[in-house]
Design a protein that fits this description.
- The protein is of the alpha/beta class.
- The chain has one domain: Glycoside hydrolase, family 3, N-terminal domain (TIM Barrel), CATH 3.20.20.300.
- About 40% of the residues lie in helices and about 10% in strands.
- It is built from 13 helices and ten strands.
- The chain has an eight-stranded parallel β-sheet with strand order 6-3-2-1-10-9-8-7. A two-stranded antiparallel ribbon has the order 4-5.
- The protein is globular, with a radius of gyration of 19 Å.
Length: about 350
C-alpha cells in the first residue's frame, strides 16, 4: 500500500480501534501528534511504534517541535529556546549563534527520532518584521540573509541526526498582522518585493538540501487571487519552477480560519492537492478528516508518494543511549546558557 495524501491526528495517548481502522485507508499517509498525545517519552514512543505498525510502508509521523512557544513534547525533553534567541546572539557573536543553532537542530531532531517520530515541521523561515504576533520569536531574525544562515545551521543539525527538514510558511507569514489560524491574512506586497526579502531564506535553503516546505494560508493579491497554499501560481510556478524545489509540499492545517474560504473540507483538500501540495493536514476535526479521506478514495500521485517517502526518519537512536550520551549533555548545557542569557538581557532592558 502506498502513502496517501492526508495527514490527520489521533485523540489521545493510544490508538483507538476506529482510529487504527481509519489509518489503514489508502488516502491516509501520515499522523501529526499534539500535546494531548504526550504523557511521557515511553508512552509516545509506544504510540508512534503502534502507528508505524499499522501498515507498510509505514505512515509518516510528525510533530511541531520548534522550541519556545511551539513545543508539543516537554516533560522528558529539553525545553528548546525560541529560535529568535539565536538571532539575538548573532548580533553579538555570529559564530556562536550558528553553532548554537546547529546544536539545537541536532538536539531537537535526535530527541524526536528517539521516540520513533519521523519529523518536526521545522525550521521556521518567516521573517520577524515586527508585524506578525503569531510569528514573532518563532523566526530567527528580521534580515533574510541572517534567517537563511541560521536556518541552514539548524538544518545541518537536523540532517546530522537523520531528520528531514520542512521550511515554513512559504512564501512568508511575517508580513501580515492577522493570524491565519483565525482568518485569511492579506499581504499587499508585489512579487518583486517578496523575492528581495521573504523568499530569500526559502531560495537559499532549497539550494542547500531543504527536504520539505509547508505553505502559508496567506493571500498575496498582487501575485495571485488564491492563497499560497491553494495556488498553482505559488506552488507550481514559483516554488517548483522558479526556485527549483523538488521536495515534499505540505499544506498548513485545513481546519484553520485561513482555509475556510475554499469551501468544505473535501473542497479544501482537493484544491490544495491540485495546486501542488503532496500532503494535506486536517487537524482537530476528526469527522471532517474522515470526510476528506473518503473523498480522496482512489486518489493517486506516484511522484508525490516518492517525495513523501523520503521524509521518513533515516535513523531512530536508542533513547537511553541518547539521554546518557555526551553530545546531548553538552548541547543541553550550551542551550541552557543561551536561555539564561536571554532572560538576563530582558532584565537589563
Amino acid at each position: 500500500m502506498s502513502m496517501g495524501p492526508v495527514m490527520l491526528d489521533v485523540r489521545g495517548l493510544e490508538l483507538l480501534p476506529e482510529e487504527r481502522e481509519l489509518l489503514q485507508h489508502p488516502a491516509v499517509g501520515g499522523v501529526i501528534l499534539f500535546s494531548r498525545n504526550y504523557a511521557s517519552a515511553e508512552q509516545v514512543q509506544q504510540l508512534a511504534s503502534d502507528i508505524h505498525r499499522v501498515r507498510r510502508p509505514p505512515l509518516l509521523i510528525a510533530v511541531d517541535q520548534e522550541g519556545g512557544r511551539v513545543q508539543r513534547f516537554r516533560d522528558g525533553f529539553f525545553r528548546l529556546p525560541p529560535v529568535g534567541s539565536f538571532g539575538a546572539i548573532y548580533r553579538k557573536d555570529r559564530d556562536r549563534a550558528l553553532h548554537l543553532a546547529r546544536e539545537a537542530g541536532w538536539l531537537m531532531a535526535s530527541e524526536i527520532l528517539s521516540v520513533n517520530v519521523d519529523l518536526s515541521f521545522a525550521p521556521v523561515l518567516d521573517l520577524d518584521l515586527g508585524i506578525s504576533a503569531v510569528i514573532g520569536d518563532r523566526a530567527f531574525h528580521r534580515k533574510p540573509a541572517v534567517v537563511a544562515e541560521l536556518a541552514l545551521a539548524w538544518q545541518r543539525g537536523m540532517h546530522e541526526a537523520g531528520m528531514a527538514s520542512v521550511g515554513k510558511h512559504f512564501p512568508g507569514h511575517g508580513g501580515v498582522a492577522a493570524d491565519s489560524h483565525q482568518s485569511l491574512p492579506e499581504d499587499p506586497r508585489a512579487l518583486v518585493d517578496l523575492e528581495m526579502k521573504d523568499l530569500v531564506p526559502f531560495e537559499r535553503m532549497i539550494h542547500n538540501g531543504l527536504n520539505g516546505v509547508m505553505a502559508a494560508h496567506v493571500l498575496y493579491p498582487e501575485v495571485d487571487s488564491q492563497p499560497a497554499g491553494f495556488s498553482a501560481r505559488w506552488l507550481t510556478g514559483v516554488l517548483r519552477s522558479s526556485l527549483g524545489f523538488q521536495g515534499a509540499i505540505f499544506s498548513d492545517d485545513l481546519s484553520m480560519g485561513g482555509a475556510e474560504w475554499a469551501g468544505d473540507y473535501p473542497a479544501r483538500a482537493r484544491m490544495a492537492l491540485e495546486a501542488g501540495c503532496d500532503m494535506v493536514l486536517v487537524c482537530n476535526q476528526p469527522e471532517r478528516a474522515i470526510e476528506v479521506v473518503e473523498s480522496l478514495t482512489g486518489y493517486s500521485d506516484p511522484a508525490a508518494q516518492l517525495r513523501l517517502a523520503r521524509m521518513h526518519g533515516a535513523t531512530f537512536p536508542q533513547r537511553q543511549q541518547l539521554v546518557a550520551g555526551r553530545r546531548r549533555r553538552e548541547a543541553c548545557n550550551l542551550l541552557e546558557q543561551c536561555e539564561s542569557e536571554r532572560w538576563l538581557d530582558m532584565d537589563l532592558e
